[in-house]
Specification:
- This protein is of the alpha/beta class.
- It has 2 domains: 141 residues, 2-Layer Sandwich (Nucleotidyltransferase, domain 5), CATH 3.30.420; 41 residues, no CATH class.
- 44% of the residues lie in helices and 16% in strands.
């Protein structure tokens, strides 16, 4: 039975898209060291990212935009990104194992939600790593465009540094999630 693991990165931040990944591992090419991406160093995540891309049977990375997050809410946008990742796989799995307690609606395959699955199921761990590394790369790119916000450091989370930058420089339209309370309450001009 072909299983794909699915996870997302970026539910909590105040800025950036939410990114999801789906991975079907190759049983003939096991990848040592897979774990919840949050439990791995940045260097280890990047090393594993390359191995997952190279050795998995199939993988797909998808996202939901800031506009979709603001329109749908972060949970629904995360589920949408997961569904997009599953649907983008070039091999159709028999079942999706999804980190968390909900599965996307209207999937064409069986799905099971597993709380803490990113630390328990290798396929979900692999998806967790792909999603996290991809999202981190996006925030590093945002940092190049908007260095005054410190995106490379905080990855869009509501840290003191980020909140101070928002107060000083304003909210970036299409980058900051205006439906999130700290952004909504900032009541600042968008640029």
């Amino acid at each position: 039975m072909l299983i794909c693991g699915v996870d997302e990165a970026g539910r909590g931040p105040l800025a950036g898209n939410v990114v999801a990944a789906a991975v079907i591992l190759n049983p003939d090419k096991p990848i040592a060291g897979l774990n919840d991406s949050k439990k791995l160093s940045e260097k280890k995540r990047e090393q594993l990212f390359e191995l997952i891309i190279r050795d998995s049977l199939a993988f797909a990375i998808a996202e939901a935009s800031v506009a979709e997050i603001d329109e749908l809410n972060i949970l629904q946008a995360s589920l949408l990104a997961m569904k997009r990742a599953i649907n983008a796989l070039n091999i159709t799995p028999h079942k999706a194992l999804i980190d968390g307690n909900k599965t996307p609606a209207q999937l064409t395959i069986a799905a099971e939600a597993i709380v803490g699955g990113d630390a328990l199921i290798a396929e979900i761990s692999a998806a967790s790593i792909l999603a996290k590394v991809t999202r981190d790369q996006q925030l590093i790119e945002l940092d190049r465009l908007y260095p005054q916000y410190g995106f490379a450091k905080h990855k869009g989370y509501g840290t003191k540094l980020h909140l101070e930058a928002i107060t000083k420089h304003g909210v970036i339209k299409g980058i900051h999630r205006t439906s999130f309370a700290p952004i909504r309450q900032a009541n600042l001009e968008l640029f």
